[in-house]
Every structure is written in C-alpha cells, then in structure tokens.
Amino acid sequence: MASRGGAFALTVVLCSVLALALQGGAAAAKRPLVPAMFVFGDSLVDVGNNNHLDGCNVLCKANYPRYGMDLPCHSPTGRFSNGYNLADRLAQRLGFAESPPPFLSLSSKAADVATADNTERMMAKGVNFASGGSGLLSGTGQPMCGEVLSMAEQVGNFTSLVQMLENIDRRNKLARLIAKSLVFITVGSNDLFEYAGGVASNRSAPGRNDTEFLQGLVSNYTAYVKDLYAAGARKFSVVSPSLVGCCPSQLKIARAVNDTDPFGCFGLANNLSGQLYPMIAAMLDGLSRELPGIKYSLADSIQMAVNFVISHGNITRDHACCGSGAFGGDSVCNSTVPLCPDRSKYLFWDWFHPTDAVSDITAHQLFVDNGTFVHPINVHQLVAH
Ligand SMILES: *[C@@H]1O[C@H](CO)[C@@H](O)[C@H](O)[C@H]1NC(C)=O
Ligand SMILES: *[C@@H]1O[C@H](CO)[C@@H](O)[C@H](O)[C@H]1NC(C)=O
Ligand SMILES: *[C@@H]1O[C@H](CO)[C@@H](O)[C@H](O)[C@H]1NC(C)=O
Ligand SMILES: *[C@@H]1O[C@H](CO)[C@@H](O)[C@H](O)[C@H]1NC(C)=O
Ligand SMILES: *[C@@H]1O[C@H](CO)[C@@H](O)[C@H](O)[C@H]1NC(C)=O
Ligand SMILES: *[C@@H]1O[C@H](CO)[C@@H](O)[C@H](O)[C@H]1NC(C)=O
Ligand SMILES: *[C@@H]1O[C@H](CO)[C@@H](O)[C@H](O)[C@H]1NC(C)=O
Ligand SMILES: *[C@@H]1O[C@H](CO)[C@@H](O)[C@H](O)[C@H]1NC(C)=O
Ligand SMILES: *[C@@H]1O[C@H](CO)[C@@H](O)[C@H](O)[C@H]1NC(C)=O
C-alpha cells in the first residue's frame, strides 16, 4: 500500500514538471490574458488539493488510475477526469498551459508559506484552492468524503495569503495583480446532492423547506464573493450547478424513489438546481450594483447541458464511461471497473464528472458565448478590460 502511494506521488510530481515545461513554452509563445487565475470550488475544478488531505477517503480522491489516463503524462494527478478538467480548459483559453497548481501542493511545506517571497511567487502565478466534495455549506462533503476544504476554508486561505503579503509593503503591486486576475468559481453541486439524497433516503422529511435551504446556500455564496472582493478580487467567472440529477450516480436514486424528470434524471436534484440558477444570477446582479468595480460572467450551465445534449444527439449520457453497476454510477472509476471504448462519445467520465471533451466544450462556451448561455458578458470580455 505504501509503495503504491509512493508511485502515485511520483507520477504526480512528473506531471507537474511536464506541465511547468509546457507552461514555459506557452508563456514564451503568448502572454496570458490575465496575470493569474484563482480557482475555488469542488471536484469539477480540483487539480489535486484532496491528494494532500489525509482524512479524505478514496471516494473523493482521483490520484489513482484510470483518472488522468488521457493527460500528456497518462497518469493520475487528482483531477476527477480522464484528462484535464474545466479549470484547466478555461486556463488554456486564457493562455496558460493548465490550471494553476493546487494550494496544498504549495503550502504543505509549511515553512515555504511562511516566507513572504515564496508566497508572493505563488500568488503571482495563481493558485487553485478547489476541493472535491466541498460545497457552499461548511459541512458539505464530510458525510461522503471525510475531510474536504469547504468554500469557507478556501476563501479563508486566499484572504490569509493576501493579508500576509500586504504586510511586506508591496500592496499596490499585489492589489493590481489580484484586481486584474480571474477568479473562477464552480460550486454548489455537492450541497444539492447531499440535500436531495437526504430527502430521497427519508421521503417523509417533515418540515423540509427547499426555498429556505437554497436561500442558505446563496447567503453563504454572497459572503464568499464579498470576502474575495474585500481581498481585492474584481473579475469573477461563476459556473452554476448544472443538471446534477443527470449524473450516473443520481440515476439509480431517481429510479429507486420514482422521481424521474423529463430527461430521465433525478427530478428533485434537477429541480433544486433549476431554482438555484436565478437566485445566483440575482445575487451577482445585486453585488454588481453594491460593490464598485466588480465584474462577473455567469454561466447558465443547465441550458448549456440541455443544448449540448440536443446538439450531440449521439453522445451517451445515461452511463459513465468508467464505472460499475447500473449506469456505471455505483462508485468511483478505477483500474478494475469497466471502461468505455471511446471517451469522446460519453458525457460522463465517472459517476459524478464529465469527460475532458465535455469540459473543453464548456470552457469554450464560457469564453466565447455571445449571450445565449453566459451573462452578462463572456470570460473573454470579462478579462479584456
Ligand atoms: C455557511 O454555512 C454553514 C452551515 O453549514 C454556516 O455554519 C456558516 O457560517 C456559513 N458561512 C458563511 C460565511 O455564511
Ligand atoms: C487553510 O485554511 C484552513 C482552514 O481554515 C486552515 O486550517 C489552514 O491552516 C489554512 N492553511 C494555510 C496554509 O493557511
Ligand atoms: C426521517 O426524518 C425525520 C425528521 O427529520 C426523523 O425524525 C426520522 O428519524 C427520519 N427517519 C429516518 C428513517 O431516517
Ligand atoms: C419556506 O421558507 C421560506 C423562507 O424562509 C418561507 O418564506 C416559506 O414560508 C417557507 N415555506 C413553508 C411551507 O414553510
Ligand atoms: C411513479 O410516479 C409516476 C408519476 O408521478 C406515477 O404515475 C407512478 O404510478 C409511480 N410509480 C410507482 C411505482 O410508484
Ligand atoms: C420545482 O418544483 C416545484 C414544485 O414541484 C415547481 O413548482 C417548480 O416550478 C419547479 N422548479 C423548477 C425550476 O423546476
Ligand atoms: C452513434 O454512435 C454509435 C456508437 O459509437 C455508432 O455506432 C453510430 O454509428 C453512431 N450514429 C450516428 C448517427 O452517428
Ligand atoms: C474499484 O472499485 C470497485 C467498485 O467500487 C471495487 O470493488 C474495487 O476493489 C476497486 N478496485 C481497486 C483496484 O481499487
Ligand atoms: C449568438 O450566436 C448564436 C449562434 O452562433 C446565434 O444564433 C445568435 O443569434 C447569437 N445571438 C446574439 C445575441 O448575437
């Protein structure tokens, strides 16, 4: 077991070295459109933070095969994908080789973080704080994963880095860097999974109030955006939870409780996500009036998913490419469960996550969409001025 862990750690290191080499090449060819990118959220954008959490179990880690099989190094890194994920694919549109590195890979050497120079170098390149399994509520993810970094912790880690640097008298340089950088947030799905799963496992659920639950999510979300703004962030790209009830893991629940929507997916989960989107849109609209200089780009990932399925009629959307059991949705992808022959023909890579091909198309839409799915401006426009 120990030697297996060692081998994975080594491939993770090799992958990062390769990525750095690629990044050097890309930087020489083309300057990125923003100084740096800061990523927050869940497993859709985690690039390996959970690898460093001892209390996080195998269900919420992706540092073993077949995760990462289509990366340049063909090895797992902690990304919940066959290849890159949405943070990587958006970073590539901005001119980076991939997502910035995971916070915990930079900060695990505690002494490094303590020196201002290292922290400054870290911030200048961007940092990914995202943690698979996490959500807007502080307890989300713990029942399934054990330990995760909640959004509150991710935002707290970012603001403490900023505060540390403010003390070394380079405030203006740092403030400019952060204001021009892109903050990318993809969170909320896990809160919906846990809530809807709880309702499904206890159908009576007396006293349940969906509106109150969703308002709680948005109230936390508002606090996080305000905290990031207070630390100097100004440009926010936000992806709302998509048709979460259509994940392979949810299809069995939908059948078990006889709650399928017109897509054949878990009705309650999709209903919650459908209610949440306009609430997030209203939150950002409100904040844009309240906080001077803030700009945002919000993706309606529900409509993006609906459009994707319509325009890719032949893609398999009711079965994970890599997974066991009904719909391939019983548990994680690993080296012993069935694997589909052609990853590019599947919407889902595993029980919860899209394939690299789908993340790439999503990132493209975030970047260039002309107002059909991304409001009020796309990410290219967001970073342009
Ligand atoms: C977010 O939600 C949790 C409940 O899980 C709450 O305890 C916490 O204080 C909230 N955080 C913020 C910043 O509102
Ligand atoms: C990140 O946040 C967590 C939770 O607040 C905290 O325990 C940890 O010390 C922070 N890490 C660093 C390096 O600041
Ligand atoms: C169902 O929910 C109610 C109220 O929350 C609780 O009292 C009850 O113990 C739950 N039943 C089961 C089987 O979990
Ligand atoms: C649910 O909560 C909302 C917000 O707190 C409240 O306005 C509404 O009356 C509640 N609904 C029920 C059925 O209790
Ligand atoms: C499942 O739900 C549908 C529509 O809500 C209903 O017509 C059907 O009778 C239900 N089936 C079972 C087995 O409960
Ligand atoms: C969610 O379900 C409620 C109650 O069934 C319904 O009134 C509402 O229109 C649904 N909302 C969405 C966005 O699906
Ligand atoms: C749909 O995909 C299947 C399996 O990949 C393939 O055999 C079939 O020819 C495809 N059909 C169309 C219309 O593209
Ligand atoms: C892969 O997952 C399956 C199903 O969860 C499990 O039975 C099997 O032991 C796992 N294989 C490895 C190599 O971990
Ligand atoms: C956006 O692009 C789509 C597809 O290219 C086009 O059909 C639509 O008219 C455009 N909308 C606007 C507002 O430009």
From TrEMBL:
<keyword id="KW-0378">Hydrolase</keyword>
<dbReference type="InterPro" id="IPR036514">
    <property type="entry name" value="SGNH_hydro_sf"/>
</dbReference>
<dbReference type="InterPro" id="IPR035669">
    <property type="entry name" value="SGNH_plant_lipase-like"/>
</dbReference>
<feature type="signal peptide">
    <location>
        <begin position="1"/>
        <end position="28"/>
    </location>
</feature>
<keyword id="KW-0732">Signal</keyword>
<dbReference type="GO" id="GO:0016042">
    <property type="term" value="P:lipid catabolic process"/>
</dbReference>
<protein>
    <recommendedName>
        <fullName>GDSL esterase/lipase</fullName>
    </recommendedName>
</protein>
<dbReference type="GO" id="GO:0016788">
    <property type="term" value="F:hydrolase activity, acting on ester bonds"/>
</dbReference>
<comment type="similarity">
    <text>Belongs to the 'GDSL' lipolytic enzyme family.</text>
</comment>
<dbReference type="InterPro" id="IPR001087">
    <property type="entry name" value="GDSL"/>
</dbReference>
<dbReference type="Pfam" id="PF00657">
    <property type="entry name" value="Lipase_GDSL"/>
</dbReference>
<keyword id="KW-0443">Lipid metabolism</keyword>
<dbReference type="InterPro" id="IPR051058">
    <property type="entry name" value="GDSL_Est/Lipase"/>
</dbReference>
<keyword id="KW-0442">Lipid degradation</keyword>
